[in-house]
Amino acid sequence: MARLQKHQLRVPKPYIERPPAVTGILAPERFMKLVGLLLFIGAAVLPFITATPYMISILTSAMIYIVLAMGLNVVVGYAGLLDLGYIAFMAVGAYTSGILTTQFGFSMLETIPIVVLACIIAGVVIGGPTLRLRSDYLAIVTLGFGEIIRITANNLQVTGGPSGIHGIPTWSFFGWSFADGLELFGVHFGPKILFYYFVLFVGIGLAVVAVSRLGRGKLGRAWKSVRDDEDVSEAMGINGYKTKLAAYIIGAVWGGFAGTLMAGHLSAISPNSFEFLYSALVLMAVVLGGMGSTPGVIIGALFVSLAPELLREFSEWRFLIFGVLLVVAMIFRPKGIWPANAVLPFLKKRTIPEVPATEAIEVAGETAGPDIEEERR
What does the alpha-carbon distance between residue 229 and residue 218 come to, in Å, rounded to a whole number? Predict the structure, then answer.
């Protein structure tokens, strides 16, 4: 003990010096924000270039898919919960807003608190007892939940049965509706254009900012810890069950909000709109784009929603081509088109200056003094 007290502990040095970080506009995070801002501006300007009803309709549907995929990214990408029935939360939101607007005279805006409450209850009822399960068992339970919601909607009178609900009004705010149109600086904006901008600015903007902030915060780090190793995260003091339940409820609210957007966009919903195929497509958008990656999920959702439309001229061959494209993407990008740890291409080709390796460090505790040197001799 006396001999140890003579020695001083030294902080170990790295064996090599790290190259200087990229700064300025080419810094990865700043570069991606700039690209995202340019794409956002491009989407805002697009209706001034081409505003055909078909183009606006498929772009609005694609943006609603992005909102839906961002919610599933919280559940699957951040928390690592395999959810095969996520479309059920979209159905809860769509049917709740549809019933309240067509049968009780609510406006879309007034239905939002009730939709959020319904989705939270659905998330707690389904997630409460099942999130203690892991791996395949959770996937089976969520798959069953999705089918239960669809079959229930198919057999209830209040949901319209197999015919569904028709005549759902568009969004309105304090007496003014998108259906009234808007005259601004001599330019007339129709209902579809106004709803396109509403989804772009409120839906996409809110989803991207909120999910990014959640992913970097304390709760987001807890989700990623549970995803990587639940046992180790619990050993570090993280309550895995509550953490997963929080992710499940937030994802459910996001899915319900996307459902209200879809109901306002299509003005009609039916049980066929919420089949298992759509759960698989949303999950495919998250996995294909890159789980846990906000840019990747946006790319994946755009690919899954727009590719069948862009291939429409190939008629019955379009789904075959779509499947081939998915297989090719999975072969060449197995971790997703843009995974969370993706490196920008120009950073791979940059020249890293050679830096001399640091000198070998001495073993801590053997630095002090003549006593050690004498013992070595």
Answer: 17
Is there a contact between 377 and 22 (Cβ–Cβ < 8 Å)?
A: no
Q: DSSP character for 340?
A: T
**Considering the entire predicted model, what is its pTM?**
0.83
pLDDT in tens, 188-215: 888 889 999 999 888 888 888 888 888 8
Contacts of 336 (CB under 8 A, 6+ apart): 287, 288, 289, 290, 291, 293, 296, 300
List beta partners, residue 187.
184
Euclidean distance between CA atoms 66 and 204, whole angstroms: 7
Q: What single DSSP character describes residue 268?
A: E
Beta-carbon contacts of 132 under 8 Å, excluding residues fewer than 6 positions away, are: 241
* Count of other CB atoms within 10 angstroms of residue 154: 17
**Which two structure tokens, joined as six digits, stand for 190?**
């129709």
Sign of torsion over alpha carbons 26, 32, 35, 40:
negative
DSSP 82: -
pLDDT in tens, 277-306: 888 889 988 988 888 888 889 988 998 888
